[in-house]
Amino acid sequence: MFVSARSDYALRAMLAVAAAGGGGDGDQAGELVKAASLAEVQDIPLSFLQGILLDLRRAGLLHSHRGADGGYALTRPADEITVGDVLRAVGGSLTTVRGLPAERAGYHGVAAGLTDVWLAVHGAIATVVDSTTLADLLTHAPTSS
């Protein structure tokens, strides 16, 4: 598994929105987070972040609200959004072999067993990222003084 800057930035942005209490529970009581604020606080280039936020919105992980008081909020509570959800939203497959999803990597002859190895690696990664939620990560975050 290769964690791209895009994937890292997407997770950092989602954690920042979750930490701000940005929605997710249907009452919109949390603070809406502006893209410019996310970019500044997380040190992410704004133009790059805007594309990531669009992917997260299209994947149904974020709501966007327009206007002067607009910003981004989670569509579900942080304990219902996994790291795997975010990674798949911005990067597609969790594991690739020569640019293809692990399940499509085909071998023959003496290398035939590699397919099973790549599928096992994929399964192990999926187990970790699909069982770790944004809320899990926020409970391990240090609090600012």
UniProtKB/TrEMBL annotation:
PROSITE patterns on file: HTH_RRF2_1, HTH_RRF2_2
Gene3D superfamilies hit by this protein: Winged helix-like DNA-binding domain superfamily/Winged helix DNA-binding domain
GO CC annotations on file: cytosol
Signal peptide extent: none
Keyword annotations from UniProtKB, A to Z: DNA-binding
GO MF annotation list: DNA binding; DNA-binding transcription factor activity
Protein name: BadM/Rrf2 family transcriptional regulator
